[in-house]
Amino acid sequence: MSDGRTPFMLILKLREDLRDPAKWTDAERDAVGAHFQMLQREAAAGNVLLAGRSDEYLENGHMHPDVMGIGIFLAGSREEAEKFVAADPAVRAGVMSVRVHKFNLAVHAGPQTWTALSEQDGSSR
After folding, report:
1. Are 97 and 121 in contact, with CB atoms under 8 Å apart?
2. What is the mean pLDDT of each run of 10 residues along the chain (125 residues)?
3. What are phi and psi of 14, to 5 degrees?
């Protein structure tokens, strides 16, 4: 990038015992709420380019074992990227684990596609 920052990909994985939504404590829900607020702040600041999660459930109501969150964010170095994900409230609370990888953009959709997706699900990408 021209501003010296590099894209990194984060992959978040929910703690195994939390695949059952009934097992969540208020503290775990609060940590995930703070996680989402942090992502929104960082996106507004231009640091998080996108973030979301897969959304699949088993017949028993538990989240699918492969459910994960991903995000693309900008950092000045790997060290800065590692600090960014380590500060995530859900990671700090042990609700999620995270892996970080450098990311190289190869192809992307145009703004019309992103706008249509935002209108479809009511989010603000």
Report:
1. no
2. 86 94 96 97 96 92 91 96 97 96 91 83 53
3. -70, 145
| Total-model pTM | 0.85
**Which of 16, 12, 99 lies closest to 65, judged by CA?**
16
Two structure tokens written together for 40: 């929104």
Strand partners, 51: 71
SS3 36: helix
Contacts of 102 (CB under 8 A, 6+ apart): 6, 7, 8, 9, 78
Domains of the chain, each with CATH number or no CATH: 6-121 (3.30.70.1060)
Distances from the Cα of 36 to the Cα of 25, 72, 110, angstroms: 17, 14, 25
Encoded tokens for 116:
């249509």
Query: What is the b/e burial string over 102-115, where b = at least 16 CB atoms within 10 angstroms of the residue's CB?
Result: ebeeeeeeeeeeee
d(CA 81, CA 7): 9
Secondary-structure percent of the chain, ordered helix, strand, coil, rounded to 5: 40, 25, 35
